[in-house]
Amino acid sequence: MKIIRGIKAMQGSSGKCKKKGLRIGLVPTMGALHEGHLSLVRSCRRDNDITVVSIFVNPIQFGPKEDLKRYPRPAGKDAMLCREAGVDYIFYPSARDMYPPDFKTGVSVRELGKGLCGASRPGHFDGVTTVVAKLFNIVRPDNAYFGQKDAQQAVIIKRMAKDLDFGINIKVLPIVREKDGLALSSRNIYLDRVGRAEALCLSAALRLAKDLIISGQRDTRAVIRAMSALISSAKNADIEYIKIVDPNNLKEIERINDECLICLAVRIGKTRLIDNVVIKRSGLKK
Amino acid sequence: MKIIRGIKAMQGSSGKCKKKGLRIGLVPTMGALHEGHLSLVRSCRRDNDITVVSIFVNPIQFGPKEDLKRYPRPAGKDAMLCREAGVDYIFYPSARDMYPPDFKTGVSVRELGKGLCGASRPGHFDGVTTVVAKLFNIVRPDNAYFGQKDAQQAVIIKRMAKDLDFGINIKVLPIVREKDGLALSSRNIYLDRVGRAEALCLSAALRLAKDLIISGQRDTRAVIRAMSALISSAKNADIEYIKIVDPNNLKEIERINDECLICLAVRIGKTRLIDNVVIKRSGLKK
Fold this sequence. Notes:
- The structure is a homodimer.
- The first copy, chain A, is of the alpha/beta class.
- Chain A folds into 2 domains: 2-173, 3-Layer(aba) Sandwich (Rossmann fold); 186-276, Pantoate--beta-alanine Ligase, Chain: A,domain 2 (2-Layer Sandwich).
- Chain A is 38% helix and 20% strand.
- In chain A, strand 3 (50-55), helix 3 and strand 4 form a beta-alpha-beta unit.
- In chain A, helix 9 runs antiparallel to helix 10.
């Protein structure tokens, strides 16, 4: 496994692989790798000859009051996990190289980034699409892997890749959960013992929603009311949003007649957590 | 010479060339080709194994009151000129393929697109950077060729290519002029006989500015005053702007101590024309 810091060096290595006809897969991450990331790496290795994991805590996707400084950066452990997982290259650039002082360009998928998480994190998704566009150009992968955990991000990146004709397949893989249901997240380490227990309210609310819908409930307001009540029973839980949307365009829906995405953001104390579930059309048959 | 309409087909042809190790050059145009474009093509052919000319009148870079419908589209003549010039591929996509109904992504070099032409054409340069990002991804050239005639565009595209790590060399070639000084432009055909004569005021004003500066004038306001007086002597000329800026960041300067870019936009009747000249540092020595 090779760790590459320079942008040109990564472009060079990637270019050489492509000239040999090797298929390249990219797993873009902010490090603090967990089983969710590793499931992306495994999938990437199955599909490609070369697996590149980028590790970059992207400053421009953090708001001024967010956890950029505090975000975990266990570089040594991440490298070890990548090596064990059979990663070929870690691309590990510096913020200064990625955003030199005269940097001025932004990539935006406009309206898709405004609702849901974008409402409380203005500019967040523009930061994501901008860095992902850069990573796509630096690595030029055939396939790129993202987690369904960040459902809105996945929709936005698919849109960007298509709109800008990157010619890269965007693969979105299922959420990986702890045995008790908590969705894996690099931010889970912020939770104390009580918070960890209360954080189960997110996945529990999603299970409840799924059960209600499968049992025939089609009114999204009723589903959201039930979820809200469940979450509010956790003392330190503060709901940022609970929405049921069309998974293709992220528009809110009132009646569930087709595939839908239920997603939520909840603060447990100071820790902001997100989770979601997709209800497939087949789940609506009664 | 091959004319390709489909995005995937162009990506496929381009990919095949790259696999053979051929160097690809791209000349992005809106068609209505003139000697300015052809000078780009010749330069492209010298540097590359494969020359691709894209012809696409990009709707998203036109304002609602601009000349999108009226813009000349002499497809047959353009194809003939390309063939004669030794072009390998014309990429000639449809607006519907480039911007399907669910298209949502934009690329922006923010502040660089706000002044100069951007002041009267809001969103114009975002339209340009978005389509150029798409063309870069579709053709994946090693080199791309632009005319200095569109000075602001050239600065913005260089910035975008660097910021987003396209790994594409941006080559900016000198303005090609008629013998009497008029900068070649696809929009010159809008001019009637009187307008054609009056249009000479743009290049004349730039020559005057250059002479003044070379003779020692360092005060940009004085230079602009003289240019303005000259242009105002043409009856149907309406100055949109005359600016003297730093060619790197397009910021206005007051005193000329280093290389500078003098640029202007003038309406001759209804026809909006632009022109510019760069005064090199060496021209400032007395």
